[in-house]
Each structure stands twice: as structure tokens, then as C-alpha cells.
Design goal:
Layout lengths: L2 E8 L3 H8 L5 H4 L3 E12 L4 E11 L4 E12 L4 E6 L4 E12 L5 E11 L2 H29 L6
Antiparallel strand pairs: 1-7, 2-3, 3-4, 4-5, 5-6, 6-7
Length: 155
């Protein structure tokens, strides 16, 4: 299974960074390739935090790709972690993890991990090149979102 990880130190507190990562419905506003994100069904409180399902539409116009899939999302505010897993549609296995850790006064280390297997080998090979670049683009987009939502953190 291909696995990509990108991390970056950002001038946001862990709570601020976690607020961005856990706001799944806002992903289309800043996560590259995500065109739509909808929470499906109820949100369930658990000992870890909160669980829900989210339907995402991901599109890559240059390759004429547009796919929809459902992820099971676990928000863990006490660990500043967001995990999403899917085995829906073209995805045999997809796991994304946002992990935020404190990195000094008013700063955080944000790590984004993407682990996936597509049902089709040709699609797997095609998507691989996109995801490799995508993980870094996602981190840049995350940082830009932080600047937009928390401009005082940069002062």
C-alpha cells in the first residue's frame, strides 16, 4: 500500500490546528482536489471523542477523474488527531490521519498521512503520482487556511 506523509511546523496552537483538521465540512474550501464534503447521519460521542460518516467528492480535472466515497471519521480532541478510513467505491483501503503535536509556544507540528490502495491497478498507478504531490499541497493548503482563520497567530 502506498503511504505518504508530510509534516510542517505551523504558527498555530494545537487547538487551532486541530480545529482546522477536524472541520471536515470545510475541506472543499482549502483541501486540494476535494470538491464536496458532507456529514452523513448522526455524530456519535465515544470515549475517544466523536465518530461520524462523511461523504467526499474528489476530482482531478486534468485526468478527468471524479470519485465519491464515504469515510468513517474519528475525531480525538484529547490527542489532537483526526482519522478517516474508507473502503468505498474505487477505494479498497484509504486511511488519512491528521496528527497535531505541540512544538513550542504558540506553534504546532502538523503531520498528514495518506495510506491507500485502489481497487484497480491502473487507477492505483495513476493516482499514485497525484497523491505524492497532493500530500505536500495539502500541507501548504492547511497552512494557508491557518493564516486565513487565525491571522493574529502570525503577528
Amino acid at each position: 500500500m502506498p503511504r505518504f506523509t508530510a509534516s510542517r511546523r505551523v504558527p498555530l496552537t494545537p487547538d487551532q490546528a486541530y480545529a482546522i483538521a477536524s472541520d471536515v465540512q470545510s475541506y472543499p474550501a482549502f483541501v486540494p482536489l476535494v470538491r464536496r464534503a458532507m456529514i452523513r447521519g448522526p455524530r456519535t460521542a465515544t470515549a475517544e471523542g466523536e465518530r461520524f460518516e462523511a461523504e467526499l467528492v474528489v476530482a482531478y480535472d486534468k485526468l478527468h477523474l471524479r470519485e465519491s466515497f464515504v469515510s468513517k471519521v474519528l475525531l480525538e480532541p484529547q490527542h489532537h488527531r483526526v482519522t478517516a478510513r474508507s473502503s468505498d467505491g474505487p477505494v479498497k483501503h484509504l486511511e488519512t490521519i491528521w496528527q497535531i503535536t505541540a512544538a513550542g509556544a504558540g506553534a504546532s507540528e502538523v503531520a498528514f498521512t495518506l495510506d491507500y490502495t485502489m481497487r484497480s491497478l491502473p487507477l492505483q498507478l495513476l493516482i499514485g503520482s497525484v497523491f505524492n504531490i497532493g500530500a505536500e499541497r495539502i500541507m501548504s493548503a492547511f497552512e494557508a487556511r491557518g493564516k486565513e482563520l487565525y491571522p493574529q497567530a502570525l503577528a
